[in-house]
Amino acid sequence: MVIRIPLCPFAEKVVQDNTVRYVVVRARRRSDIIAHILEEARALVETPEDVTATTIVLAPDAFVEDFPAFYETERFLEASLEASELQHPVLLAAFHPQYTFGGGLSELDPIHFEKRSPFPVFNLLRAERVWAYANEGLTEKIADRNEAALAAIGIEEVRRRFTLSEKEVERYNGGKEYGVSEGSGV
User: Which InterPro entries has this protein been placed in (predicted)?
Assistant: First the structure.
């Protein structure tokens, strides 16, 4: 859904270039998931960008029904990545089936789907690449563009597309057809 609408100005290129590393972490404990994600962050900065531009860590067995714990983990990971001594900085974008924005928005506002995914996802991004996109003006007003795009589609169509995304995930059995690592190592 992120590429088809499109919600992210740079997702399409890394998918087309086949430089996305997908990792499925089957752990359920928060500490294990954090350890896997920090390991993946280290692996990302040690791998040439033309091989892996970004890493998407899927955690289908954790936090699915516990958004507050997911959000707390997201904040902890952001702080850990910011404080880390990695050779190159890594940023985090996180997505969850129950993600909602505050600010008194209606439950029916399609903007909530900007940060939703069929199951918990942690996207590790090379900060230098994001900053380069920002310098090119590609990140300006992303939120405004996404809000307009999702509103134009409407909540019913956004829900339909999200449901299709969930069915695609089921069809591909968690991405195993793509050679997804189970997160046991890098």
Answer: DUF1415 (IPR009858)
Beta-ladder partners of 56: 22, 123
Would 4 be classed as within a structural domain? no
Tens-place pLDDT, residues 116-133: 888 899 999 998 877 877
Query: Looking at the DSSP assignment, which residues form a beta bridge with residue 57?
Result: 23, 122
* Amino acid at residue number 78: E
Lowest-confidence region among 11-25, 82-96, 125-139: 125-139
Cα–Cα dist 4/25, whole Å: 26
Residue 91 forms part of a structural domain: yes
Is the pTM here over 0.70, yes or no?
A: yes
Does residue 20 fall inside a structural domain? Answer: yes
User: Distances in Å between the alpha carbon of 112 and those of 9, 106, 109, 115, 120?
Assistant: 18, 9, 6, 6, 15
Q: Is residue 183 part of a domain?
A: no
Q: Which residue bears the tokens 């294990």?
A: 32
Number of domains in the chain: 1
Domain of 141 in residue numbering reads as 11-178
